[in-house]
Amino acid sequence: MASETPPPAVTPLEPARAAQLAAEFGLKPEEYARALEILGRAPSLTELGIFSVMWSEHCSYKSSRVWLRQLPTKAPWVLVGPGENAGVIEIGEGLAAVFKMESHNHPSFIEPYNGAATGVGGILRDVFTMGARPIANLNALRFGDPALPRTRRILDGVVRGIGGYGNCVGVPTVGGEVNFHPAYNGNPLVNAMTVGILRADRIFTAKATGAGNPVVYVGSKTGRDGIHGATMSSAEFGADSEEKRPTVQIGDPFAEKLLIEACLELMETDAIVAIQDMGAAGLTSSSVEMAGKGGMGIRLDMEKVPSREPGMSAYEMMLSESQERMLMVLKPGREAVAEAIFRKWELDFAVIGELTETGRIQIFHHGVCEADIPLAPLESAAPLYHRPTAETPKRAPLGEVADPVGLLPALKRLVACPDLCSRRWIWDQYDAQVGGQTSKRPGEADAAVVRVEGHRLALAMTTDCTPRYVAADPEEGAKQAVAEAWRNLTAVGATPRAITDNMNFGNPEKPEIMGQFAAAVRGMAAACTALDFPVISGNVSLYNETEGRAILPTPAIGGVGVLEDLAQAVGLALPAGCELLLIGGTDGHLGQSLWLREIAGREEGPPPRVDLAAERRHGDFVRGQILAGRVRACHDVSDGGLLVAVAEMCMASGVGAHLTVVSDHGFWFGEDQGRYVLAVTEVEPLLAAARAAHVPAMRLGRSGGGDLVLDGEGAISVAELREAHESTLPRLMEGV
Question: Which of 343, 582, 652, 715 could pair with 707 in a Cys bridge, judged by C-beta atoms 3.0 to 4.6 Å apart?
Answer without folding.
Answer: 715
